[in-house]
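Hey, I was hoping to borrow your eyes for a little while. There's a protein on my desk that I can't quite get my head around. The fold is given in discrete form, as structure tokens running alongside the sequence. I'd be grateful if you could look everything over and explain what you see. Here's the protein in full, and shout if anything looks odd to you:
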Amino acid sequence: MSPEFSDRKLVQSLLLLSREISLLPSLHFLLKLSSSSVIRKFKLLAFVFEEILRLLVSFLPQSALLCSKELYVVLQRTKTLIEDCSNGSKIDGIATLLDVFPFKEFDLSDDVKELVVLLKKQCCDAQALVDPFAENLRQEVLDMLDHIEKGIVPEQSKLVNVFERLGLHDSSSCGEEIERLQDEVQNLGSADRNLTVQMVALIGFLRYAKCVLYGASSPKRSTGSPRFDGEAPLPADFLCPINLELMSDPVVVSTGQTYDRSSIRVWIDSGRNTCPKTGQILAHTNLIPNHALKNLIVLWCRENKLPFVTAETNNESDGFTVNKAALEATKMTASFLVNKLRVSPSTEMASRIVHELRTIAKTDSQSRACIAESGAIPLLVGYLGSDNAVLQVNAVTTILNLSIFEANKTTIMETDGVVDGVLRVLRSGATWEAKGNAAATVLSLASVQTYRRKLGRAKRVVRGLVDLARMGPSSPRRDALAAILSLAGERDCIGRLLEGGVLEMAVEIMNELPEEVVSMVAAIVKRGGAMALAVTDGAIGKLSTVLTDGPEGAKEFAASALVSVCRIGGEEVVSQMAATPRIQKAVWELMGTGTGRSRRKAASLWRTLRRWAAEPDHTHRSRTVVHISTNMADDFMS
């Protein structure tokens, strides 16, 4: 590459970078003080580089070459800085380089010379970094946030004036600004706590003003996960099995299951010594961070533009973001929306209001508490039976989101008509999404032992969950199975589950969702359902097939259930299991490769099969079912 071409390429790169920076979108006004000024300067700088490129016919002077290389580095950093929404500026470095750049070496036009002088002056003038318009606007909003923090409701006329100057003219533009702020909060994390707190407060303020000025957002028909309305479907492994929320600090317990740290800590501190999902006794209470899963969750959130709130930004005692202004703004927003709902609005308006409540209720526990305290829950009851499918699904999903906050569970259970309304949606909801979210609400409420017993004894609850698990699509079906598994954690609920046809349903769908179904069956068997399973047509054969050909996660539960059933069902059950092809090989492999618990269960099955095969009244073929590797088995168990 010739020197001339290399030098020309460098100037072209400087020109291109300047233009790219000048075209970057304006940031929100909290950062606009430096960014807008920098962006304007690069519009001018682009003209200078364009003139130099036009005049360049040979290589750059050595001093100009060195300055150009340094400028290229600074411009790259400046672009990255603005794109990352940082609150600093590299303009001082640019000022130094412009001051030493040998512009006199080039025959610049008078206009461009004037631009150079102007650029040098602006870059050296500290006051030039502050846009007076943006500074005044920023101060007005900060004053409003200060008033909101004190519980003072902003005057609507002032809101109109500020939002006009911000260029936020409708609900859509406000929503886009909120999304940008959420992205910035996520990217900043704990790097700049003061700015993060300020932006969280601003998000609350924007939500309130959006509702007051432009009304609630229009609901959209959802096709995604129940917990993330209309967004990309959330992987089930990212949800904590206890609180149904996106895990911010996933940890692994001794059984190998993963939970959010705060939820499993509350579970353990309440005196429980079992794994919430499997029912197994915890060998110890150590919590091992699941860094790999956390990284996956963070990456997924960034790709799907969802906020990821880490433990560092939360109050450790109650999980609330420490931000008085944001709290007061959320209270004002909830109160405003609930008051609108109290006046019996039209179906269209009610749908928009409930959708807005649903959106706010999925953000954090602080918002869920504010909405419940504003009196929203009793008003939502009437919309659970709405003929409008969108309004119905928004109502039940709002209750689901509210139920995730522990204190709201009592309000939901004790408010007349809420549970009955949720159960009606579960049995005859207008959409599968509504039914699935009703099942998820049952699961959320069942995390409290008293409510779990009450719900598990209700015939309507069990029948609704069983029907949904049997006939629903994948996501609602999993919600139903998770709710049944939770109810199966109480021995008092087993009779109603059996009466409701849970085992028959399990046999029907075990091939489709083996892990979920078999873990549920194992929980029922453990708490008194072994005999019922033994006499359920096809159950032993299906469990044996899972043990031989099922996913690894389901094999342990299958072994556990089969051990219990064999002890009660006797020879007939054992013979059904022994008739399964390759059963002895599957049991042997589980003894060698499974977890400590699964190896013990497999060893018990192996002994059962050997004793059965040794009975004199069995055929030679039966007696040799487990004869393969008998000496190896003796060595293994000795």
Summary: The chain has 32 helices and three strands.
